[in-house]
C-alpha cells in the first residue's frame, strides 16, 4: 500500500469508527430525558449502572457535541445534545463562588467535590464549545469569567482546599499549565486573543517539565524545573506528556515558533518511546524514571486515553515534519488501539486493559471515562487525515 | 499426610517464614538511625526508594514489634525497634487536637493528612501494644484518650473534614466499626473492660453489613443495614469482610456467644467463596455484588493482605468448628499465598499480583504496605497451629 492509500485507509477506518460506532453509542444511551445532562456510567451495552453524573464528563460531552455541530455537520440532534448538558451544568454543577462539583445525583444534588480545579476547567470548556457552536456570546462571557477564576485558583490550590503542609516538597504539576493552555485554545478557538501573557506563562511552565538531557517529560518538578528524587518527582505519565506535546504544538504552529514546534514533537516521540511496552505492546499508564516499581496499582495497565492522545499526536507530527518514524508510530499505536479497545457489538471503546492487553473492565463509561478522549482523538485524526488526503 | 502431620508441617513452614524471612527484612532495612521510626517504602531488596514515613505503617510496625516482644520472646532488639517507632510517633505524628498525620518527611514534618480516622487508629494501636509490652501505664492512658477521640470522630466524619453534601446517600462503612472493635481488643488485650457498650455498638453495626439471605457482606450499607443499589452499595471487599469475620469471632469466643460465632465464621466462608477467582486462583480485591465491572482499576488484582487475613480466619474457623471445609480453605489460600507472594531471595512478601498471579510491583513496602499484615497473620496462624499441635 503506498502512503496515500494508507492515509485514505486510516481515514476511512477512523471515520467509520467515529460516526458509526462511537458517537451513536452516546446518542443512544447517555441522554437523561428526565433531568437533562448525560448518564456517563454506562455498561458495555449502554445500560446505566450508576445514575450519578460526573462533571468532568458532563462538560466534556457537551463540548464534544458542540464541536461536532460546529465543525462536522449542523445536525439539530447534536446541538440539542450539547444544549441539554449545558443546561444541566449551569443549573446544577456550579456554586455561587464558581467552584464546580465533581459529581451530582441524576437530579443535580451534590455528591462529591474535589480539591482540584479540573471540574471547573471542563465546565469552562463546555461553555466555550457551546458558545462557538451557537454564536451566543453570553456563554463565551461566562466561560471567560470562569477561566479567570480558574487561573487565580491555579496559582494557589489552597484556595480550593488543598492543605499546605510544612513537609511538602515545593513542586508543580504538568496537569495545571497544560489544561489551562488547552482551555485558552478552546475559549479563543486557537486565536489567543487577550491571553498572550497567560499563554506565554503556560508554555514557560510546561517546558520546565521537559528534560532534553534525559529525553523525559516529568509530571512533577521543582518550581525551577529541576528533578525531584522521590516517587512524585520520578513519576512519568506518558499519555499526559504526549497530550501536552500536541497542546503545545498547536500554539507553536500558530506562532510560527520552530523551536517550540521541535520540542513539542520531541515530547511526543520521547514519551512514546519510553512509555511503550516492548514486551506486550501498548503504552504503560505510569512509569518511574529511575526504574523503580511505580506505586500506583494501575501503573502497568493499558488505558484507552493515552493511546487516543498518541494517535493524534504522532499523526500531527507526521503531517508537520514528514518523518517516516512519526508515521510508523501513528500506525503502531492506531493498530494496537483498534485491535484492543473497540467493541463493535455494542459500540464505543473499552477503557481498561491489563498489561497483556486483556479487557479488565467491561463498562464504556465511568467516573473518569465518557464521551471525550475516543471521539476527540478520532475527530482530530479524521480532520488531519482529510487535510493530508487533499494536499 | 494425616491431619496432625499437616498441622505441624504448616506450623513449621509459617514459623520459618515469619522468623527467618519476614521479620529480619524489617529489622535489617527499616530502621532510621537518624530520626527514629521506620522507612516503610522499601524496594525488593530493602533499599529505601522514598524516605517519607506513612503513619499507618509506623503505628502498625511499632505494634507488631511490641506484640512479638510481649508474646514470643523478650528480645531487647524487638523492644528497641518498637520504642523507636513510639518515640517518632509521639514526637511528630500527632497534632495538639489529636488528629494524626497520614505521612511525614523522614525528620517528621507533615506532608499529608487524610479526611479519615485510620491514622489515628493505628497510632492508638501502637501505643496500646507498647503499653502492654512494657507495662508502662502512661502509654495505655494515652491510647485510651486517643480511642475516646477517635470514637467521637467516627460518629461524625465531618469533624475530620469529610464534606457532607446534599446528594450523598446516607450510608455507613464496615471499615469504621471493625477497626474500632479491633482497637478495643488491642487496648484491653481482649478483656473489653469498660468498653462493654462500645463493643455492643460495634458488633451491632458490623452485623448490619452481613446479609445472610444473599450470603454476602457489603462494605457500605444504609444506616438501617439495607442494600444500596449503586456502585458503593454493591461494592464487595472480600479481604475486609474476612478480616471483620475474625475480629468478630474473637469477641464471640470471649463472650461465649454461639450465634455470633456462627455468623462470624460464615462471614469468612461466604466472602472467601464469592471472592475466590475460580479461573486463576487467589482472592479478588473487589467485586460488584450484582456482577457489574467494579469501577476501581485494581479490582481483579490479587493483593497480599486479603490472603493473609483469609489464612488466619479459616484456620481459626477450623480450630473452633472442626469442619473439614474450613481446613481445606485454609490450605487452599495458604498454598496459593506461599506459591505467589514470598521472595526468599530478599525476604518479605510481594504485595501486588495481577489477576493471573504475576508480580506487578516489586517493592516490599509502600504507602499502604509495611510490617503488618504478613507478620500479623503468620504470628496468628503460628500461635493457632501450636495450640492445635498441643491439643
Number of strands of chain A: 14
Overall shape of chain A: globular
- Oligomer class: homodimer
Instruction: Using the CA coordinates, give the radius of gyration of chain A.
Output: 20 Å
Largest interface: A-B, 42 and 42 residues
Largest sheet of chain A: 3 strands, antiparallel
Total of helices of chain A? 12
Helix content of chain A: 40-55%
Regions of chain A with pLDDT < 50 over 5+ consecutive residues? none
Distance between the termini of chain A: 18 Å
Order of helices and strands of chain A: HEEEHHEEHHEHHEEEEHHEEHHEEH
Share in β-strands of chain A: 5-15%
The average pLDDT of chain A is 97
Strand order of the largest sheet of chain A: 3-4-5
Structural class of chain A: mainly alpha
What features would you describe in this structure?
- The structure is a homodimer of 391-residue chains.
- By secondary structure, chain A is mainly α.
- The first copy, chain A, has helices at 3-29, 55-71, 76-93, 118-134, 137-155, 175-188, 196-207, 238-255, 258-275, 304-321, 324-340, 373-390, and strands at residues 41-42, 48-50, 53-54, 103-104, 110-112, 172-173, 210-211, 216-217, 220-221, 235-236, 287-288, 302-303, 352-353, 359-361.
- Chain A has a three-stranded antiparallel sheet.
- In chain A, strand 7 (210-211) and strand 8 form a beta hairpin.
- In chain A, helix 9 (258-275) crosses helix 10 (304-321).
- The longest helix of chain A is centred in the N-terminal third of the chain and has 27 residues, at 3-29.
- The first copy, chain A, starts with a helix and ends with a helix.
- The mean pLDDT of chain A is 97.
- At the A-B interface, strand 4 and strand 5 of A face strand 4 and strand 5 of B.
